[in-house]
Amino acid sequence: MNHTNRMIASAVTGLLVLGLSAAPAMAEGKAEMEKCYGVSKAGKNDCQTATGSCAGTSKMDGAKDAFIVVPAGTCDKIVGGSTASS
Questions:
Q1: What 3-state class would DSSP assign to 34?
Q2: Which domain of life is it from (predicted)?
Q3: Is the model's pLDDT at 42 over the cut of 80?
Q4: Rounded distance, CA 52 to CA 67, Å?
Q5: Among candidate residues 68, 67, 71, the one with its CA nearest the CA of residue 21
Q6: Measured distance CA(48)–CA(61) in Å, rounded
Q7: C-beta of residue 48 within 8 angstroms of C-beta of residue 56
Q8: Does 27 score more than 70 pLDDT?
Q9: What is the DSSP letter of 40?
Q10: What contacts 26, CB < 8 A, 6 or more positions away?
């Protein structure tokens, strides 16, 4: 297996693991979600910030006022993540 195929296989495996870990919450049909501040990439935030009026307007990675929505309990596991806006 060459390097590219290994990388693709690793990525697919990672996505499958993430999908399986979310499966119990999805099976119930109503997974609880929370806002996770300070972890979104520039232009990838889910909603408005103090400096932007629309989703996707964050100008820098890790902006403290920008959030993404994640399954409840996940934000505490992300380095730099906070459930409260700074």
A1: strand
A2: Bacteria
A3: yes
A4: 12
A5: 71
A6: 15
A7: no
A8: no
A9: P
A10: none
- What is this structure's pTM? 0.57
Give the sign of the dihedral formed by CA 80, CA 64, CA 59, CA 44.
positive
Contact status, residue 44 vs residue 65, Cβ threshold 8 Å: no
Q: In this model, does residue 73 exceed pLDDT 90?
A: yes
Structure tokens at 12: 């697919």
Report d(CA 74, CA 12) in Å as an integer: 21
The structural domains of the chain, with segments of one domain joined by +, span: 1-30, 32-86
Check whether 16 has a pLDDT greater than 60.
Answer: no
Q: Which residue has the tokens 């297996």?
A: 1
Q: Which of 46, 47, 82, 43 is nearest to 64 (CA)?
A: 82
Non-local (6+) Cβ contacts of 85 within 8 A are 35, 37, 64, 65, 67
Amino acid at 39: V
Distance of CA 76 to the CA centre of its chain: 12
Share of the chain above pLDDT 70, in %: 60
